[in-house]
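## retry 2 of 3
previous attempt timed out at serialization; input unchanged, resubmitting
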Amino acid sequence: MRELTGSFFILAGAIFLFSAGFGLLRMPDAYTRIQAGTKATTLGNVLVLAGVAIDQPHWAPRLALVIGFVLLSNPVSSHALSRAAWLAHTPMTPATVIDALADEKRRDAADGRT
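## retry succeeded, writing output
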């Protein structure tokens, strides 16, 4: 039963990792690719690692540390990548309606803040 449950988690994680790769191909610009890749890979990695932890309980403490690292580092790195892309003036898709960071920068400039 433990093997079946672990295998199910690993399969679910693999599906999310596949969808992340598919999202990278389908999304129109760098910002949406970063978002698609980050959300799906975070969940996919966590599910795969949880599946291995269920299947191999003696690895669970180490895998819990890896899961914690993934949960902390993936969102932080994607934020840093998107901010760097914005600062490098990477173009957004024409379908993008709101650029919240540009709006905030304009508001700060109008208020005299830098």
